[in-house]
Design a protein that fits this description.
heterodimer, A: mainly alpha, two-stranded antiparallel sheet, 8 helices, 2 strands, globular, B: little secondary structure, about 0% strand, ER-Golgi transport (chain A), ER lumen protein-retaining receptor (chain A), ER retention sequence binding (chain A)
Chain lengths: ~210, ~10
Amino acid sequence: MNIFRFLGDLSHLIAIVILLLKIWKSRSCAGISGKSQALFAVVFTTRYLDLFTNFISFYNTGMKVVYIACSYAMVWMIYSKFKATYDGNHDTFRVEFLVAPTAILAFLVNHDFTPLEILWTFSIYLESVAILPQLFMVSKTGEAETITSHYLFALGVYRTLYLFNWIWRYQFEGFFDLIAIVAGLVQTILYCDFFYLYITKVLKGKKLSLPA
Amino acid sequence: QEPNKTHDEL
């Protein structure tokens, strides 16, 4: 485990906790895409099925369980507990346009044609685009609450740090996994536009709003 | 068969 990966995991965890706390404290999930959160629950579930098949470390198992639990807590809050505050009218991204292509791609391009491996690959592909419903929602309403911006920023930083982790692993372990790297690159690129807005606006104390 | 190495990542 290198520093980039650890900080990446930490950043991912911080992102999730920020969002959970935001919803819980404000008793509202306004501005949050339930579809993106549901997709993340699918991503974690399909990727971490290896919890049942092999043990890597207590850190690994612990983080996986926490991510899965948090993602389901999020879905429960949005679609059940605070359903009345969910902004479904603006959450109109068609998720089948993400799920179907990534599922097909996972069948075509994978390391090993076995159920667990295909599901793992699917989760990697799906994760890279799972934030799109949320970004679409922000662009549709033209703004995001500052705390939502922090969430998106921390989530974007997570995969960016993983890119550095993969460069590190290639350099010092001679190891690389093209599936993870390409998907991670796509995922990071999707955040670039948002990173720009975050740095130029949110960090200067302004609310994130898009020009009309 | 040994699992792919990135599978130790989150």
